[in-house]
Task: inverse folding
């Protein structure tokens, strides 16, 4: 089915003036659609869902429908504008949240205009805004029944199970690469007892199950181009039940690293403590009082474990022959894993400071709340 015909399967009106590929996402194929409705130009996003990764589209869209509906109600209650502050699904004319054409599945959203996003941290203020936005996302969904969400990618952040998969890759060594990665394999094995630090607390009910985004990179936030404020969280495909430490940790892993994800000069890799402190401040302000004391204590653990897990996934893929992550040069996944492990090592050197900055931010926030309560 051609795109023009496909768009007519959704509840949109007007004549199509332009369709163009949009963004630089690696998972779904995205188009920007321009339509003229009675002389007014309206813009939409059309996405082809990657059904190789997201095999159960009904469950995927049920998650997104539930979460965006909840966000819309909360935003309206707060006097906000849900048309700009959350994604809104345009239903297909058959009443479903997506349209299936053969083996392909599509969905549509209104395009949120006058916004921008970054692929990496260009200004500290934008990193702070991303922290504030993801914290607010967590707060608004703190009363959503996370257990009702489907796991679109099962055990996505179960570090212990990722470790088991890694160990099997080392044992089988199907591409005879383990010898080339011996220092990296030993790095993982030396930290084997840390793998279940978060999931064990969840099983013991010491940490609450949360709605988590699971891909908290800066480019998944739309920033208002007038106010500079982070206004809308996008790319909700990996919204699943999880832990707040996952989202915090992955954001730190990606945004507070001083080097590129595949930097080969490991002397350039470190945790930028100024950016770390800024993100802690913004995230806790956004979360408000929604996190428990134990969750707050485990935020640095989330940063370390998400980085270790990511490096372990790169290394696993390298040992298996680069079958998951797209590579652009020989040993690319090995370079990527070394960068992540260098960041883990730097976190370990700065561990006392990382924890202290969280506690200081918690104290400041508590003091601020007390002052507002008792003027």
Result:
């Amino acid at each position: 089915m051609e795109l023009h015909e496909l768009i007519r399967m959704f509840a949109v009106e007007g004549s199509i003036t332009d369709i163009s590929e949009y963004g630089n996402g690696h998972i779904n194929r995205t188009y920007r659609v321009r339509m003229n409705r009675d002389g007014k130009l309206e813009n939409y996003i059309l996405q082809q869902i990657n059904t190789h990764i997201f095999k159960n589209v009904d469950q995927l869209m049920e998650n997104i429908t539930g979460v965006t509906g909840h966000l819309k109600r909360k935003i309206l209650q707060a006097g906000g504008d849900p048309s700009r502050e959350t994604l809104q699904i345009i239903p297909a004319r058959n009443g479903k949240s997506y349209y299936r054409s053969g083996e392909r599945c599509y969905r549509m959203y209104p395009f949120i205009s006058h916004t921008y996003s970054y692929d990496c941290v260009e200004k500290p203020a934008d990193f702070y805004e991303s922290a504030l936005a993801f914290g607010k996302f967590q707060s608004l969904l703190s009363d959503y029944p996370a257990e009702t969400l489907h796991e679109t990618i099962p055990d996505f952040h179960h570090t212990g199970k990722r470790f088991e998969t890694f160990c099997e890759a080392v044992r089988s060594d199907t591409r005879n690469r383990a010898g080339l990665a011996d220092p990296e394999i030993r790095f993982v094995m030396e930290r084997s007892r840390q793998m279940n630090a978060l999931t064990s607390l969840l099983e013991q009910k010491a940490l609450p199950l949360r709605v988590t985004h699971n891909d908290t990179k800066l480019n998944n936030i739309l920033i208002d181009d007038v106010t500079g404020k982070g206004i809308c969280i996008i790319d909700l495909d990996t919204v699943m039940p999880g832990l707040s430490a996952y989202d915090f940790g992955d954001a730190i892993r990606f945004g507070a690293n001083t080097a590129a994800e595949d930097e080969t000069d490991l002397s350039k890799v470190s945790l930028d403590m100024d950016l770390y402190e800024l993100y802690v401040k913004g995230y806790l302000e956004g979360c408000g009082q929604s996190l428990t004391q134990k969750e707050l204590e485990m935020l640095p653990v989330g940063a370390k474990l998400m980085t270790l897990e990511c490096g372990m996934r790169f290394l696993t893929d390298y040992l298996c022959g680069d079958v998951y992550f797209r590579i652009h040069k020989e040993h690319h996944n090995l370079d990527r894993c070394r960068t992540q492990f260098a960041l883990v090592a730097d976190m370990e050197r700065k561990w006392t400071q990382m924890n202290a900055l969280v506690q200081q931010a918690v104290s400041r926030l508590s003091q601020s709340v007390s002052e507002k309560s008792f003027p």
Q: What stands out?
A: The chain is about 45% helix and 15% strand.
